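User: Please look over both lines:
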Amino acid sequence: MRGLLRRVYLRLPPFPPATSLYYWSRTTTTTRPAAAGPKHPIPRRMSTSSTAAAVVAEGSAARRFWIAAASREAAFAAYTPFLVSLAAGALRLDSFRQYIAQDAYFLHAFARAYEMAEECADDDDDKATIVVLRKAILRELNLHASVLQEWGVDPNKEIPPIPATTKYTDFLLATSTGKVDGGKGSDKMVTPFEKTKIAAYTVGAMTPCMRLYAYLGKELAVFLKQDENHPYKKWIETYASSDFENNALQIEELLDKLSVSLTGEELEIIGKLYQQAMRLEVEFFSAQPVDQPVVAPLSRYCGPKDKLLIFCDFDLTCTVVDSSAILAEIAILSHQKASQGGADSSLDRTKSADLRNSWNMLSNQYMEEYEQCIASLLPPEEARSLDYDQLYKGLEVLSQFEKLANSRVVDSGVLRGMNLDDIRKAGERLILQDGCKNFFQKIGKTRENLNLDVHILSYCWCADLIRSAFSSVGCLDGLNIHSNEFAFEGSVSTGHINGQMESPLDKAEKFKSIKSDVGSTGTLLSVYIGDSVGDLLCLLEADIGIVVGSSTTLRRVGKQFGVSFVPLFTGLVEKQRRIEKEESSIFKARSGILYTVSSWSEVQAFILGNDFS
């Protein structure tokens, strides 16, 4: 049960103001994606819709395109075996040399594309900017050669381009000749406007590379502070430098300028080119050969005989809103409909307004008492290391509170009279967090190749809602759902909850039970993904606990009992440094460390890899 007033977002026209939904919250914040601690290595989750992007960065086409791509493709690039190993300073020289050779092919194509963009630009200032950017690319090529020479490697020794490199360079050069969306291009561009449009398309295909490298450079520069002798220091410093950031800003400003006179349809084409270039960047990094043990993706870290168990919470971990709000609203509207229809029914004829007041009172009571409960279970001093036993005792108090709160809801009669079909339809319209659907869909597509099981552990009052939500996006097959169930008479709810999972302790016991029942000839590795205090025991019991969102209450309780919260990417880089020195698994339950992410794209990139893994 949760508390805080918030609008419920469904894939339906919005409810009228009179039916705004109240739900019971476990957190002290209403903002989900904001980072509430150490800086995350991946951009905070942002909407990929053009409308939301326009609100965030109105007027800048380049910024809109980056926002639309950053939360997904930037995460997919950073979590590749190549970049995780490079960040750790553990990447083998042969792999880096192969990358440098492939990047040289790309940079030559980049320089050629700049030349062609300069020919198409009709403004002297634009031409001058392109010349400056092209010179920067030539300096980058010289850097590649000098790095190899420092290591005693002949930079002139030819290494053939791999398919991912060829695919990227072909795309770039085709775009620079006007071959967009399968078109044939234009050998003779009659008007200056047509030439300017080609220049805009070309710059649109080049900009994401510059922005992504500037972004990655800054994120990887953090690890240079931890290792003064980092073998790839020079490479990282190049892309983390203010000079490179200025180049990225220059090409973004150029793209904005070239886009001003374009139509909406032409801007949409640039957006598609930008997205395609970002995907090609991810594919390029993914294709770099890394012939050494790696921690990411986890599906590669696990051996063929190893078993991977993925556990996940549902409300506010997978969803945008808590399901209790939706179920309460369905019940209230069911009473309202029955009363207006005047039908002979066993439904309680309590006025919908009175029923809503009852719900609001229950919600407000929960909010107030929840904070008191959390305060009562906290120890007076912060533990220096994980104190699991004391945490367990504290969460026993919270478990009693949660069950009492559920009993109040049942006794109120608020949940009586719901039709099962209405519940299922609401589940179909439930919005999942950005990237969540893609994660579970990829599991479904790759299940045959992966030795894994997936379990949803949820406080949700009605498992039918969960099943419907996942079924509507094609993710139900192979998904094991452990939750509470409504009691029904026929297809109408009686108002009672068949409580199977109402508390943190219930979740922890089910987690342990599932693990103990798994038979595996290899290593058993478990991952738990959650967002709240109710998930804390499972997060710690798992070999890898991943925290989605920014619950301040979770962090407050965790830290007081000695739990550390570390950005996932940072934690993986540290694990990568140790992986070849460890004889057993480097991931261990009850380590006291939980890993934070800012988007589901990070979760997918770490566990399953990107679409090219």
